[in-house]
Every structure is written in structure tokens, then in C-alpha cells.
């Protein structure tokens, strides 16, 4: 691998990067469960917020990180050298950025703290600035600036903290920016400055505001500031700027003391401290707290909680323990220690997605907070193995968002199970949304063995939109609420199994002219949003086909394991199981759509509330018939071959009803998505998988950026989607989009193409961690662009898929209806020098350490499981395909011994 800028320090994932300001777009997340969401850069830029309408600092996009002058800043003024920024964020220091002999700086970061060290260019003075968000119930970010005199003579200086206080909604950044500053009420107190706008101007209306934004500070032993600069224009001075403020550069006297009130100005948390003399070898620290609260605060109370060095250090240690314990729920050990440490950062990412949603980090400037429907289910994949205690509750509540027409709510509330009618009255249906819940639920059932979950009751979401938002029921009124009702006016509840069946049955009938499922508003690729009328998603037709097959098997398992012979479904839904009463020809799109229309008419404005009882075996057979028809249809009609002789599955039809993939005058067109789900779901035969892999290597693999999401289509595709308006090699148009690339690897592993899957995963790791090119901190990005830069770091669903693939496919540690299935697919290079590879993970309420011993260094395909020991005791082998099953009962018997070590000896296949 090429040399990279950052290097790991120790074995906990801490990394260091020298001269970090030499690289643009770097930022790091700082967050807690209380809702404080920060980002920070090597020059202490970034943003601090608790939501879309409550930014303490100015909202920033990625470009603002190096163009805006507003940042967390801390200044030192000396008579000899004048003003100096501990973060390098001054006009003078910026001018020296490309000069010889520039200041030394280094960023060091761990879980979840960020530290910048900078040495003064002219004085023997070193500044160490530590930032983190403590794991308390407060929305607060803490910063400690530690100054050390490394020379042999005293240094006299005056210190000034300067954090601009934006204090309002992100919408006000350009919409009434000045007008909303007139709302500011600025107060000084003993320890700092508070801003409480009188009103909030945002999408909620002009409301009386209670939220307060504060910057408090003290010296290391709690001594308060000597004065304040609360008003930004006074702090910077006429003709000044935040990176060269008059108050610091000319060492002005503080503007105000405690208990002073200002109104109608842009604010800054300008805290002046008394001049001090630092003896040779001596250090002095300053503590700054940046707070968002629901009302005016008692600064004495918060000073006691946060404004001393001892308290800061204790909270930092607590913070490190908290994140280490969370990430210790899954630890990989392989032959590549650096990759194992990189995986710890990947493990963090699903947790960040849960806390940030898809917003509030610089690249994610398009979101208003919260998560989308797909996120609810995909983020649970990782939470299943990291935070399993709440997963059942989350899954159960998620199903309350399903509509009776098979679609789902698109506006998701802050609390589990809270779904809201679309406030813009322009709902959009993503055709893939119904496919994901089963995948996540199956993982839960396999991990837990909790088949009873399928029989739990849950409500359905209801608003005025019907027929997958193609129709409108004007009789529905907002005061009726957002739950489906029966004709008697009661809230209707169906089983989770009914919800799942509905989500997969409706799409089966909702087909376009080529008998594939309609694309509607888009599928997984949000950029394919311009083919709502005649567009079809072949890729997700394959996904739904595999779902129907899996549902058929699940029903039979439910019967076998629970002794249940029948299930109850809503009377209206039964007609979708057409083979049980009035079979139709699946070759006829007209018949399918007619049946679906009759179903739509039967559920408006209410359902009857009556149930039918059906044989599990009959329902399973109906689902199997549908799945097998879809698979045969796809193999027969959607297999394309290029003039060069490469073959693969077409993934889409556009809004003109044209097949998208294959030979084209502007070059071969191919998508990775169309291959992933045909491979993963068993639609592609083994022979076809071989050919698909060859075609992907030919048309989509690029050594510079990895596996592209699609080949070059050429031109803007107004009949397919906005994605093709993006430059090729960026985002959803031909970049290495990590999510689908990881899923491609997962699909290959599932089908036994381990060498091929390993190469795909390895490419993601090597591209992401090659800092010289990717220019990102450890972790997996949303995508890698044409130049190899990692983009949209930290918040990506690909992290959940990567973590899950590594655990369940590579290390082969997974559940099977509650039992533990071990089926390793490790390559020889993934074992350490002693021939061992291991993973620690949660399973069945306990921590397991699974250790694979491969003393002969046998490669995958040539080994099998020879013996298994649990806590040193030999266990009987119960083989299951290429793996072995360990019953949950056996694990329960041994659970009294605490955490369990399972040692697996691999032997050569005779």
C-alpha cells in the first residue's frame, strides 16, 4: 500500500496526522446521545448543532470548511509577536501555509475526541487543543486549550476565546440572515455569554423562542474570564475579520463585564482572560463549554459541571470508556492489524448514522435531520450485533409505517414508531422500500430465534394518499389521525407477518409493460427518479423474487418450529394470494394490474376488519409459485450479451420503455445494481455468476477508484434519472458507491465466490485507507470520486453492510433460527503469522470470542471445520453445509461460565 498521511498510535484505533491543514475537507464527528452533534476540522472549523433549527455555530457545507473565517478560535497575544491562533486560523498564519519553515501542527483523534497540537512559529510555545462532546444529558461540547512554555525564559500573554454564536435555524443562513440577528438577545454572565433569540423564524412559524446558545469559559482551576466581547462587529472592528480581529490584534480592553445586555447584533462568544506569565516548562489550561439549552442557564451550575481541568479530564476519560465499550461489542483480529483498526472506525459509523441521521456533517448539508425509511432498516443490521437490546422494539415500531397499499410513510418522526403525513403533499414512493424490512427481520429472527415476533400485532400508517400515492382519498381528514381504521371506526392491527407479506405481494402485481416491477419514484438509487410512468427496476424485481422465496421458507419454518398450521390475514389481502382462489396468468401484465386495482379499491376508505384463516402450506406454495415465475422470467428475458461476448442482467427500463443496459452507440451500458440482487437472491445461476463477474471486471472495475456503480451512459438521461446529470465518476453516476460495492461483495460471498468477494472488499479498504489519494480519516466513505477522494465520510449505510459482511460472511459467525452457525470464508492471507483469526461479538445475550485456528495456513476452499471447543471442552459437531451448528441450548447451558471462547480447528479437506 502507498504511504499514507495518518498513522495509528497504539492498538485502540487512535490515529495521528501531521500538518493536517495541508488537506482540505477533513472533518471529524463529535456527538452524544443527548443530541449534541458537532463536526470539527484541524483548524477547529465545523459546526455545532442539536437540530436543523438550532445551530450554535454557523451551518457549514464542505466548501466552507476552508473558505469561511468563522470557527472555534482561541487567541494568544504577546507584546513581541502579536496575535497567534492556537488552531492556525489567523490571516497571518494562513498566509504562511505554503511557506518554508511553517508552524508544526498535528491532529490526533480517537473515539470520540479530537486534539490539535500546534507549535508557535517564533516563540517556544506549544498549544494542545482537545475537543469532545461528553456523554452527559447536556447538549454541550467541551474544549481545553493547554499552553506549554517549552523554552527557558518566561512568556507573558493574554488569552481570548472566540466562538461565533449563530444561534438559529439553518434556513436563516441566507434567508433573512440580518433580520434574524435582530432577534438576538445577548447576555453576559460570570463565566460567559448567552444568546437567546426572542423569536424563531423557521418553517414552524414565528414562535417565541426559549432555546439558548452559550459559550462559557474558565482557567484551569475555575477562575472566570476577566471580560467579554459579545458583539461580533465590535470584536472584529471596522475592516477586521474573524481571522484577524481588532480586539485581539490590538489587544483591546474587554467590551463588557458580567450582567450586560445587548440586542439586535450578530454575537460572538468572546471571552478575555487576564494576562499571565508562563514560566519555563510551565503549562496553563483554559476550559471552554459550548452549550445549547432549552432556556436561560445558571452559569455557576454549568461552571461546576464543566469548567475545571479536573472535571474536563474526568469527563474525557468517561467519554473514552463509553465509546470503547460500545465498539468492543465487535472486534476483528486478522493477519492485518491496521485493517482490524480500520474496521473499528467502520464499526463506529452505523452508530453515527443513528445519531446524526443523514444530516449535520459538512458533506451532508442537504438534510434536515432524521432518517429515511430505508435507513430505519439498514441501520438496524449493524445495531443487531452492536446494540441488540433495543432491536426488537425498534423493528416492531418501524412496521407502523407500512401503508395498507404496500407503500410506507416517507416522513419519519423523532420517536420510534412515529410517522407523519407528508407535510408538502408531494409524497414519493420508492419501489424498493418494501424489500428491506424482511431482510432485516430475518437477521433478527436468525440471531434471536424469536419467531413469535412475526405474530405480534401492529397498526398501519394512513393518510390521504392511496394506490401507492397515485390516488387521493379526499374523505380522509387530518383529525382522523395517521392510523388505518376499520369500517366500524376502530384502529386496525395486523401481524408483522401480514405487514411483510403485503410489502412483497403488492409489488409482484405492480408491473410495467415488460412484466418487471415498476420503478415509480426511484429505487435504492435515488438518482433514478425520472421514469415514473414506464420505468421498471429489474434489479429489485430480483430482490422481491428472492424475498418471496424466503418468505415461503419462513412460513414452513414457522409451522415446523412453532407447531402453527394456519395464519390469519385481513380479508382484503387474501385476494393477493390469487392461486388459492382465482388464479391469474402471471404472464399477463393486464391481469396483474387489474387484480391490484381491485385490491386498491377494497381498502379505501377503510378495511373491513374481518380476517380469513389460511393454511401456512397453501400460502407458502403461493409465494413459491410467484417467486419461481419471477426467477424464470428474469433469466429468460433480462439476460443481455454485448458484442464483445460478455453477459449480465439488465437492471432497468427507462421512461420510454427502453431497456437500459447492453450495447449502445455511445458505449456499453451496465449497472452494478442489476448484478447484485440477481446474484444475492439466487436468480443468477452459478454459470451466470461467472459471466456476470467477468462482465463487471470488464466494464465496471477501475483500478483507480474501484468498482463503478455504472459504466458511462453518455449525456443527461431525462428519461431515467437526475443521477446522469452528475459528472461521470461522481456520486451515483459512475463513482465507486460503497453501498452497492459492499453488497456486491456480500452477494459473491453468499454464493461461494469467496476469492472474488475478498478482492472487492479489499479494494474498498485499500482505496479508503490510502490517504495520499483518498484524503480522508479512517472509515468507509459513501463514495470515491473520479480522483480517488473519499466523499461524504462517516454517514453511509455501506458501513452497516460492510460490518455485517465481515462478521457473517468473511468470519462466518451468524445465527440460524437462534442457533449459532459457524461457516468461515477466510482467505489464507487473513490469518496471522500463527495461523489464527478471531472475532469477538455479541450473540444470544453473551459475548463470544470465536477463534479459527489454521496452523497449516490452508487457503479457503481447501479447509473444513475439523473440531470445535467451547471454553476448552470438546463439542460434538453438527455439520450444516460447509459450516457447523452450535445449538442455543448448548450456549445457554454454558452461559453460567460467562463470556465464551469457541475455538475452531480448520483441517485440510481430504
Structural summary, described in words:
- It holds the Pfam family Glyco_hydro_94.
- Residues 623-808 form the Glycosyl hydrolase 94 catalytic domain.
- This is Cellobiose phosphorylase.
- InterPro entries: 6-hairpin_glycosidase_sf (IPR008928), 6hp_glycosidase-like_sf (IPR012341), GH65_N (IPR037018), GH94_catalytic (IPR033432), GH94_Enzymes (IPR052047), Glyco_hydrolase_94_b-supersand (IPR010383).
- Keywords: Glycosyltransferase, Transferase.
- It is a single chain.
- Among the domains are: 7-327, Beta-galactosidase, Chain A, domain 5; 371-513 and 562-616, no CATH class; 811-908, Sandwich (Maltose phosphorylase, domain 3), CATH 2.60.420.10.
- It is α+β, with helices and mostly antiparallel strands.
- α12 runs antiparallel to α13 and α16 runs parallel beside α18 (738-750).
- β40 and β41 (790-791) form a beta hairpin.
- The mean pLDDT is 94.
- It contains 22 helices and 50 strands.
What structural class do you assign from the helix and strand content?
A: alpha+beta
The CATH class of the domain at 7-327, by name, is Mainly Beta
CATH fold label of the domain at 7-327: Beta-galactosidase, Chain A, domain 5
DSSP E strands, number: 50
Rg of Cα set: 30 Å
Strand line-up of the largest beta sheet: 1-2-9-10-11-12-23-18-15-14-20
* Major beta sheet summary: 11 strands, antiparallel
Shape: globular
Q: What's the pLDDT, averaged over the residues?
A: 94
Tell me the number of helical segments per DSSP (H or I, 4 or more residues long): 22
Note the gap between the termini. 36 Å
By CATH's scheme, which homologous superfamily of the domain at 7-327 applies? Glycoside hydrolase, family 65, N-terminal domain
Please bin the fraction of helical residues: 25-40%
**In what range is the share of β-strand residues?**
15-25%
CATH architecture of the domain at 7-327: Distorted Sandwich
Low-confidence stretches: none
Amino acid at each position: 500500500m502507498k504511504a499514507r498521511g495518518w498513522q495509528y498510535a497504539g492498538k485502540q484505533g487512535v490515529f495521528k496526522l501531521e500538518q493536517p491543514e495541508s488537506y482540505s475537507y477533513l472533518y471529524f464527528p463529535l456527538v452524544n446521545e443527548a443530541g449534541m452533534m458537532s463536526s470539527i476540522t484541524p483548524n477547529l472549523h465545523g459546526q455545532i448543532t442539536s437540530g436543523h433549527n438550532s445551530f450554535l455555530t454557523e451551518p457549514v457545507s464542505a466548501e466552507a470548511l476552508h473558505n469561511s473565517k468563522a470557527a472555534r478560535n482561541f487567541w494568544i497575544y504577546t507584546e513581541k509577536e502579536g496575535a497567534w491562533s492556537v488552531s492556525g486560523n489567523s490571516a497571518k498564519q494562513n498566509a504562511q501555509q505554503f511557506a518554508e519553515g511553517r508552524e508544526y501542527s498535528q491532529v490526533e483523534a480517537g473515539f470520540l475526541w479530537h486534539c490539535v497540537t500546534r507549535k508557535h512559529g517564533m516563540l517556544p510555545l506549544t498549544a494542545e487543543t482537545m475537543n469532545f462532546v461528553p456523554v452527559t444529558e447536556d447538549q454541550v461540547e467541551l474544549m481545553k486549550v493547554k499552553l506549554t512554555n517549552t523554552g527557558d525564559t518566561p512568556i507573558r500573554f493574554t488569552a481570548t476565546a472566540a466562538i461565533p454564536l449563530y444561534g438559529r435555524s439553518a434556513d436563516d443562513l441566507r434567508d433573512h440572515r440580518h433580520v434574524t440577528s435582530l432577534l438576538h438577545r445577548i447576555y453576559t454572565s460570570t463565566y460567559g455569554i448567552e444568546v437567546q433569540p426572542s423569536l424563531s423564524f423557521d418553517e414552524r412559524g414565528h414562535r417565541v423562542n426559549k432555546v439558548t446558545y452559550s459559550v462559557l469559559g474558565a482557567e484551569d482551576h475555575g477562575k472566570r474570564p476577566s471580560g467579554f466581547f459579545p458583539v461580533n462587529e465590535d470584536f472584529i472592528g471596522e475592516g477586521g475579520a474573524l481571522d484577524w480581529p481588532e480586539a485581539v490584534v490590538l489587544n483591546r480592553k474587554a467590551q463588557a463585564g458580567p450582567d450586560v445586555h445587548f440586542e439586535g447584533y450578530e454575537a460572538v462568544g468572546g471571552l478575555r482572560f487576564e494576562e499571565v506569565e508562563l514560566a519555563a516548562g510551565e503549562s496553563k489550561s483554559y476550559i471552554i463549554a459550548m452549550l445549547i439549552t432549552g432556556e436561560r442557564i445558571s452559569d455557576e451550575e454549568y461552571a461546576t459541571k464543566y469548567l475545571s481541568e479536573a472535571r474536563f479530564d474526568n469527563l474525557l476519560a468517561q467519554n473514552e470508556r463509553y465509546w470503547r465499550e460500545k465498539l468492543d461489542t465487535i472486534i476483528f483480529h486478522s493477519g492485518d492489524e491496521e485493517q482490524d483498526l480500520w474496521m473499528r472506525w467502520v464499526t463506529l459509523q452505523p452508530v453515527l448514522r443513528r445519531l446524526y441521521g443523514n444530516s449535520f456533517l459538512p458533506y451532508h448539508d442537504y438534510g434536515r435531520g432524521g432518517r429515511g425509511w430505508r435507513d430505519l432498516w439498514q441501520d438496524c443490521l449493524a445495531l443487531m450485533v452492536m446494540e441488540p437490546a433495543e432491536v426488537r422494539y425498534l423493528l416492531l415500531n418501524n412496521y407502523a409505517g407500512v401503508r395498507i397499499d404496500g407503500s410506507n410513510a416517507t416522513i419519519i418522526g423523532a420517536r420510534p414508531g412515529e410517522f407523519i403525513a407528508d407535510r408538502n403533499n408531494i409524497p414519493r414512493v420508492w419501489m424498493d422500500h418494501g424489500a428491506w424490512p424482511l431482510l432485516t427481520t430475518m437477521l433478527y429472527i436468525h440471531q434471536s430465534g424469536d419467531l413469535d415476533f412475526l405474530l405480534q400485532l401492529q397498526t398501519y400508517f394512513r393518510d390521504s394518499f392511496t394506490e401507492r400515492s397515485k390516488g387521493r382519498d379526499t374523505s380522509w381528514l387530518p383529525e382522523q389521525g395517521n392510523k388505518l381504521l376499520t369500517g366500524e371506526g376502530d384502529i386496525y392491527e395486523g401481524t408483522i407477518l401480514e405487514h411483510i407479506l403485503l410489502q412483497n405481494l403488492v409489488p409482484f402485481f405492480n408491473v410495467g409493460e415488460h412484466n418487471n416491477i415498476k420503478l415509480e419514484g426511484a429505487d435504492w438509487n435515488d438518482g433514478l427518479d425520472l421514469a415514473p410512468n414506464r420505468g421498471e427496476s429489474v434489479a429489485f424485481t430480483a430482490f422481491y423474487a428472492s424475498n418471496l422465496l424466503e418468505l415461503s421458507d419462513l412460513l414452513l419454518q414457522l409451522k415446523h418450529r412453532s407447531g402453527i398450521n394456519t395464519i390469519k390475514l385481513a380479508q382484503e389481502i387474501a385476494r393477493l394470494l390469487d392461486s388459492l382462489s382465482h388464479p391469474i396468468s402471471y404472464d399477463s401484465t393486464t391481469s396483474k394490474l387489474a387484480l391490484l386495482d381491485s385490491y386498491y379499491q377494497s381498502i379505501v376508505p377503510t378495511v373491513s376488519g374481518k380476517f380469513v384463516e389460511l393454511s401456512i402450506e397453501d400460502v407458502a406454495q403461493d409465494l413459491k409459485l410467484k417467486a419461481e415465475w419471477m426467477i424464470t422470467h428474469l433469466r429468460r428475458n433480462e439476460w443481455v450479451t454485448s458484442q464483445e461476448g460478455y453477459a449480465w442482467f439488465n437492471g432497468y427500463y427507462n421512461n420510454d420503455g427502453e431497456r437500459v443496459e447492453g450495447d449502445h452507440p455511445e458505449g456499453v451500458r451496465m449497472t452494478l445494481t442489476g448484478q447484485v440482487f440477481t446474484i444475492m437472491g439466487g436468480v443468477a445461476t452459478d454459470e451466470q455468476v461467472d459471466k456476470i463477474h467477468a462482465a463487471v471486471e470488464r466494464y465496471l472495475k477501475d483500478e483507480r477508484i474501484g468498482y463503478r456503480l455504472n459504466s458511462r451512459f453518455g449525456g443527461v438521461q431525462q428519461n431515467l434519472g437526475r443521477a446522469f446529470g452528475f459528472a461521470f465518476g461522481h456520486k451515483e453516476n459512475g463513482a465507486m458507491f460503497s453501498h452497492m460495492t459492499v453488497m456486491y461483495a456480500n452477494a459473491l460471498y453468499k454464493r461461494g465466490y469467496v476469492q472474488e468477494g475478498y478482492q472487492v472488499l479489499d479494494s474498498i479498504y485499500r482505496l479508503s485507507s490510502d490517504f495520499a489519494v483518498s484524503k480522508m480519516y479512517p472509515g468507509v466513505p459513501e463514495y470515491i470520486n473520479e480522483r480517488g477522494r473519499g466523499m461524504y465520510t462517516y454517514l453511509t449505510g455501506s458501513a452497516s453492510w460492510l460490518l455485517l459482511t465481515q462478521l457473517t460472511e468473511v468470519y462466518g459467525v451468524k445465527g440460524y433460527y437462534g442457533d449459532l452457525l459457524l461457516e468461515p470464508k477466510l482467505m489464507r492471507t487473513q490469518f496471522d503469522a500463527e495461523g489464527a483469526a478471531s472475532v469477538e461479538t455479541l450473540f444470544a445475550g453473551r459475548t463470544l470470542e470465536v477463534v479459527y485456528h489454521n496452523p497449516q495456513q490452508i487457503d479457503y476452499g481447501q479447509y473444513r471445520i475439523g473440531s470445535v471447543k467451547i471454553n476448552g471442552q470438546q463439542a460434538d459437531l453438527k455439520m450444516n453445509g460447509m459450516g457447523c451448528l452450535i445449538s442455543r441450548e448448548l450456549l445457554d447451558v454454558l452461559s453460567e461460565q460467562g463470556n465464551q471462547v469457541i475455538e475452531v480447528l480448520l483441517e485440510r479437506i481430504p
